[in-house]
Design brief:
By secondary structure, this protein is an alpha+beta fold. The protein has helices at residues 15-25, 55-63, 100-116, 121-130, 133-156, 164-176, 207-221; strands at 2-9, 29-38, 41-49, 70-74, 182-185, 188-191, 227-232, 241-246. Mean pLDDT is 83; it is low at 79-94.
């Protein structure tokens, strides 16, 4: 179903990123958004599409979000009927979750990375060096997922909901090319210069890039978005880092 949210906030910075990620976390895709100044503050209008069963929880999260001063939800004219088949929610994939201390560091880095984008890698590599090995994957993955959702909302939201193949080619590939050298080869996306490789430890290590792909595709394609998996990594001796996209 389609729902339009009208939110008033006293802060513009980070508002779309925060609420867009909230919608995505509840299985909704962001179709379009508009932000303008109003008498009471910044007014953000978001049109989202997702399963009716998750709507009440999403509305509650948006209404109680610390950035939100007032909130209302309406069904736009011509919106999909409530009894229409809802998009299938993204299956649980046991995505790594950062610990509380690392979550605070991720929160602190998000505004810095969005401000300096696409110049990301100095603070990211510093974070990767400082984190213990068992904390590195969940923190970098979560940070990448959040930056990917932000980039999609900023640069690609006008494309609307795409097929999985189109989302990879029209969103994931051009977005990644803003920060690394990337190409499509068959059904996989290849990165030849990931800065996270050759750490002296074995195993796939491009957790930020994988998370960024998940964020980009989740926002671009909605709850049926393909899941990015790193199948080859230069850190393990491969010539490139390869990411494949799976739906289940």
């Amino acid at each position: 179903m389609d729902v339009e949210f009208r939110v008033v906030s006293d802060r513009r910075e980070g508002l779309l990123l925060a609420l867009g990620q909230t919608a995505i976390a509840h299985g909704f895709a962001l179709l379009r958004q508009r932000m303008a100044g109003g008498e009471d503050g910044v007014v953000l209008t978001m049109l989202v599409r997702g399963p009716q069963r998750n709507l009440a929880a999403l509305e509650d999260c948006v209404a109680t979000h610390p950035l939100v001063s007032s909130f209302e939800a309406t069904r736009p004219e011509g919106a999909a009927r409530a009894d229409s088949p809802a998009p299938r929610p993204l299956p649980h994939r046991c995505a790594p979750t950062p610990c509380a201390a690392d979550s605070h560091r991720v929160e602190a880095l998000v505004p810095l990375l969005t401000r300096d984008y696409p110049n990301l890698f100095v603070p990211l590599l510093e974070l990767a060096r400082e984190l213990p090995a068992e904390h590195r994957e969940p923190a970098l993955y979560d940070l990448g997922r959040r930056i990917g959702a932000w980039v999609q909302a900023r640069d690609f939201a006008a494309l609307g909901t795409l097929s999985p193949c189109e989302a990879v080619r029209r969103v994931a590939l051009p977005a990644l090319r803003q920060i690394v050298q990337a190409q499509i080869h068959g059904d996989a996306l290849h990165v030849s210069d990931s800065p996270f490789c050759h750490r002296g430890e074995r195993g796939a290590c491009c957790h930020f890039l994988r998370g960024m792909l998940v964020g980009l595709l989740g926002a671009a394609h909605g709850p049926d978005a393909p899941h990015a998996v790193e199948t080859r990594c230069r850190n393990d001796g491969a010539e490139i880092c390869a990411f494949e996209f799976r739906t289940a």
